[in-house]
Specification:
157 residues, alpha+beta, Immunoglobulin-like, 6-stranded antiparallel sheet, 4-stranded antiparallel sheet, 10 strands, 34% strand, globular, disordered N terminus
């Protein structure tokens, strides 16, 4: 009787350890937005980096689906160099991404968005390095757990 009880406890423990943590499972958020002037869809999905210093987002914009990284870094110039990899895949880049006017956000070239989106749907983790001209490089790690569920809510995909 005791042995059976111990086996049940061990099986439950193994199951609990295999489940994603609540913070991981709900890592990605969806925010519905409309442009107040045109009523155009500006919804987005986003998550914070593991260190909390940056936010990765897929955004509905006037030119289609955009991938952006907003971070607590200073201006990188017009084309910061970004290198990234998903899980154990080979790195992509360095490649110039567009910098926002204020310099605290970068956007992936539109040509990278479809491939990066597919990688996000299949992968578990993104490691992204942004190197600017005046600041030291910043490396961010983002979880893709929960991405696909929230991404499917975007109407611009």
């Amino acid at each position: 009787m005791m042995r059976r009880h111990m086996q049940s406890v061990l099986a439950l423990l193994v199951l609990l350890l295999a489940l994603p943590k609540p913070s991981q499972a709900q890592n990605w958020q969806f925010e519905a937005k409309k442009n107040p002037g045109s009523d155009a869809d500006r919804s987005f999905v986003y998550t914070a980096s593991e260190d909390g210093d940056a936010v990765l987002a897929w955004r509905c914009m006037s030119d289609g689906l955009n991938v952006t990284v907003d971070g607590g870094y200073t201006h990188y110039g017009h084309y910061p160099q970004v290198t990234y990899h998903v899980d154990d895949a080979p790195p992509v880049g360095p490649r110039g991404w567009l910098s926002s006017t204020g310099g605290n956000s970068v956007s992936a070239p539109m040509s990278l968005v479809p491939a990066l989106t597919k990688q996000a749907q299949r992968g578990t983790k993104l490691v992204l390095r942004i190197a600017g001209y005046t600041e030291p490089p910043h490396t961010y790690v983002f979880s893709f757990i929960g991405f696909t569920k929230q991404y499917r809510r975007l109407t611009c995909r």
